[in-house]
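Input record (one chain):
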Amino acid sequence: MERTTSVGVGRGTRQRPGLELALAATSVGVFELRPESGRMRWTKEFASLHGLDADLLGGTVDVLEARVHPDHRARLRAALEDSPHGIHVQYRLDGSEQCWLELRAQPISESDSSALVAGTCIDVTSSARRYADEYRSRLEAEAALRRMQGLQTFTAALGEAARTADVIDVVVREVLVVLGAEAAAVYRLRDDGATFDLLGSVGYPEELHGEWSSFSADTPAPASAAVAANALVVVESPEELVRRWPSLADARKVAGDAASVCAPLEIEGRVDGVLYVAFRSPRRFDEDDLATVTTIAEECSHALERARLYEAQRDARADALRLARRLRALQSVIDATLESQSLDELLRELLERLREALGTDTASFFVFDEERNDLVARAAAGLEVEVTEGVRVPVGQGFAGRIAAQREPWVVEDVSTIEIYSPFLRQHGLGSLAGVPLIADERLVGVLDVGTFERRDFSEDDLLLLRLVASRAALAVEQAVLHERHRTVAETLQRSLLPERLPEPPEYALGARYVPGGAGLEVGGDWYDAIAFGDGRLGIVVGDVVGRGIVAAAAMGQLRNALRAYAFEGLGPAAILGRLNQLALEIDAQDLFATAVLMVLDPCRNELRMSSAGHPPPLLVLPDAPASYLEGGRSLPLGASRATSYEDAVARFPPGALLLSFTDGLVERRDMSIEQGLERLQKAVSGVPHDLEALLDHLLAEFSAGEHGDDVAIVAVSSLERPVEPIRLRHAALPSSLAQVRGALREWLNRAHASDEEVYEIAVACNEACTNAIEHPLRSPDSAFFEVEGTCAGGVVTLVIRDFGRWREPRDDGDRGRGLKFIHALMDSVDVTATEEGTEIRMRRTLGGPA
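The corresponding structure, as predicted from the sequence alone:
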């Protein structure tokens, strides 16, 4: 007989054969719920799933809730209360082992009774665990991502941290974010390895800073342990910390640390410090935590090393700048010896520059009087009354007297604490003094001192500058008798490099400037010259020694003199530079290089011919045209190579044109390229009137020597508008005179700006007329000559050829009479006037027009 089972668990349910067995086989619990009463019925499987008595097949909702984990009871009750709409809820049973169940139910409508909800219960522990594992993995992945992002932020912030303080600020701030820590500190181990110094911290009370800002490396602590082992030191509880380092118990209470990791900061195998990260509750550190701390420590180590290198470079630059300032100050002081005309002027100039360089209120020179064994005030700045009153200080007394007696520098920060011999020092209220002896050849020469009204601690650099100035002044005082001789030598050498006066050719206006650079050496390497040739041409040369000093300047003097000699041999610019290059290679000066540009201006041809030996290109301004650089004819500097060849370049230089040649000091700047400087000069010259003196003053003001440290030499030449003076020639009526006439006429026509073709045709016409004047007239011995007169006005050339005597009767010669036709063909107009006294041929030609 076939078995049957009920769908529900109560009376009145429909029976289905085998369903009960099927549900039992799958461990599915079945239940029904009366929502209005909270009464339930369930199967044995349902009871078994919930750990209820197998014989208990029904009860209230409270019985069921008692078996559910407290955290999930509210969830279950809410689902059951909403059961008229269906139930779908998962919950965990109360107990040591995790067990998850799932209820699913639907309401069942019955006409003869109240609402009923029926459903099933199954064990979903395995799927819940998978979900929990997935959820935990997701949380771990999110935590890893946050940590990675934190590390990226940390690394990026470190990359922008240049100074040690910046690095420490990033480390102690970002490590809290990356690790979720509450405190952090970075310590650096001193070079001797004996002491830790705190670089920075966060999260610790102020009272700990004093005690732990610096401590011995032998102190039992995580830091010393991390350095000793060169490994992470991990503490996961307060008890562990106190057990391992009992002496830290009190500090731990104040700090509040419950767990920590201390990582060594290692660079190239050397431990330089530690990174300490702390938490305020016990914590177990996993591998990811420790790997993160290790990464942060490594990044911190590299960042600190970069910061150390950056600060070392910064300090080196600061030292270099400070030294450069001192050197400039010293150079400024030394410059005074070149500019002074007497010992007193020299000392006063030295004091003014020294006072400016050191920022002091007073400066004084005392000169030792060996006969009276005292010091006499010779020069002063800010305390001139000592000189005017003739103050004398015995050796061994007062401030200056003690320095003279001991021959050692002395710095007094508070003048009120020492004996002062000069009453003027106290009257003027000086607060601090510094002084050094003047020694020359181990003999006392005097004392140099400086003072300030405010109290000041003079540095070693200040004393160094004082010593240097004192040594210079001592030599100046000791060798005062040689001053004039040295000055004469320096002036002679300077005159050998620069012309005393420029030529004054009628065709050109010249102007020049030389400005010494900021370096203040005795003789600069920049030079210029102007050479007037006998034929009206003008030579302009500007040069620059690549290097500084007397030897190089003297060598350039040889080059300059040689250039003049070669120029007067009639050589062109390229040939002259070629010879100078060979000479530069022979001069006894190591590594002598020089740049130069040589230009020869021809007023007859209205052109210039130039060649350059590695020099900046000259700037040419033609009438009604913008300024442009002459780039042609350029080659290597003088002394660079024996194989160097030089070439000439030709450019127009008509009246109204301006030529500017200069050394690189005019256009070189530290803050711009030389190309930018050349462009700046080009703009500065364009549109400026060609008044040379005003132009040069404008350029020196625009390109101030204070902007650079190099010498500057500038030569400016303008081609003048020049009227063509009439030409008057008188020659013997001989064929040999024709060549002289042609030569003079060609030169005159060039000055009149005639073209080469016009010069040739007019000269031929004049030659034909002069030939007639020689051959045709019958003349007495006292009239055996002819004249040529020429004028040029408004672009029209007028020539008059005049002979004296009556012309012979024309012979029957087929070639005769053609000369005048030839002249007519070459000139615009020809008029012949014959009288008893002679014949005059007047011919005209408009320049620039057809013949």
